[in-house]
Design brief:
Rossmann fold; 2 domains; 23% strand; 9 helices; 297 residues; binds guanosine-5'-triphosphate; six-stranded mixed beta sheet; GMP Synthetase, Chain A, domain 3; binds magnesium ion; 9 strands
């Protein structure tokens, strides 16, 4: 019997902030790996979602939304994750919100320089009329040569299995890059921190979520309980007061919701301890950013 060649590749999801990249990766994985919120710049890292079968392995990467003018060193590090993802991709999934109004000239330029197949994924079509979809497709066709154009709704799971079939069609022949039972490149600590950051993004307003970072200081997996010690870092005392809330009400709410998410994700009871610490201007501190997983150079 002839052996079926093994296929594997990096399928990297890029686009502007808030386009729905993380929601799409979660839909493709059938698992909530990446946090999603209605605020822009939720994702700060490259997060891999690995989907393996007997004769294939798709390594999806969710990436931060592309910012035209990075204002902080943190932003520059986030954009570095995007740059690397554009370089090592076998297939690029370019996600754009069908209603996105912002100028995408910078992205178009970058897409034109790519030599790998690019899919245009027009997301949030659950909110659009069919004629709006057709119109957008025509607009985009004039700008870039796409291998495939797929209207999707990451949130409602519309056309997600079709997208998977199309990815399989373009996946190159290659051996697996990761052990077949691995689902991601990130640690349990990373996901715990992200779950807490998601609640911070959901409940806090204006600049506060952007000034927050979460680090997991301790993670003890005991037989019946997972004991997690998290530190929320903010830039100013006033922000610390906001995160804590009146008589500690805000941190309690955030913590309770994050703990419930963690219990679902880890399938275990979680005891979550939280501290809030002020680190002035952490978004521009190179050494600290490196320590916290925002790459080098
Ligand atoms: N109606 C609708 N909303 C969607 C869809 N996909 C994503 N959203 C919403 O759009 C918002 C942003 O989604 P994310 O997945 O966090 O977007 P992102 O591109 O990862 O954003 P950044 O990480 O900030 O770059 C969230 O409120 C999602 O619920 C969709 O198909 N339909
Ligand atoms: Mg995201």
């Amino acid at each position: 019997m002839e052996k079926i060649p093994h296929k594997a590749g990096f399928v990297n999801i890029i686009g502007k902030p808030n386009a729905g990249k993380s929601t799409l990766m979660n839909a493709l994985m059938g698992e909530k790996l990446a946090i999603t919120t209605s605020k822009a710049q939720t994702t700060r890292h490259r997060i891999m979602g690995i989907w393996s079968g007997e004769d294939f392995q798709i390594v999806y990467s969710d990436t931060p939304g592309i910012l035209e003018n990075p204002s902080y060193e943190l932003h520059r590090r986030m954009m570095e994750f995007v740059n690397v993802s554009l370089e090592d991709a076998d297939i690029v999934l370019f996600v754009t919100d069908i209603f996105e109004k912002q100028d995408q000239a910078d992205i178009i330029k970058r897409l034109k320089n790519l030599e790998v197949p690019i899919f245009l994924l027009l997301n949030k079509v659950d909110l659009a009329k069919p004629e709006q979809i057709a119109e957008k497709i025509e607009e985009w066709k004039k700008e870039v040569e796409f291998a495939e154009i797929v209207p999707v709704s990451a949130l409602k799971n519309h056309n997600v299995s079709l997208l998977f079939d199309l990815v399989m069609k373009y996946l190159p022949e290659h051996e697996a890059y990761f052990p077949k039972d691995e689902m991601t490149d990130k640690s349990e600590r990373f996901f715990a921190a992200e779950m807490l950051r998601e609640k911070i993004f959901q409940y806090l307003k204006q600049e506060v979520p952007y000034s927050c970072e979460v680090q997991i200081e301790s993670f003890k997996d005991e037989p019946n309980i997972l004991r997690i010690g998290a530190v929320i870092l903010v830039e100013r005392d006033t922000q610390r007061a906001i995160v804590l809330g009146e008589k500690g009400s805000m941190i309690k709410k955030i913590g309770t919701e994050a703990r419930l998410e963690m219990e679902k994700f880890f399938g275990k009871k979680v005891f979550l301890q939280q501290f809030v610490k002020v680190v002035p201007d952490w978004r521009n501190q190179k050494r600290r950013l490196e320590e916290w997983g925002y790459g080098g150079s």
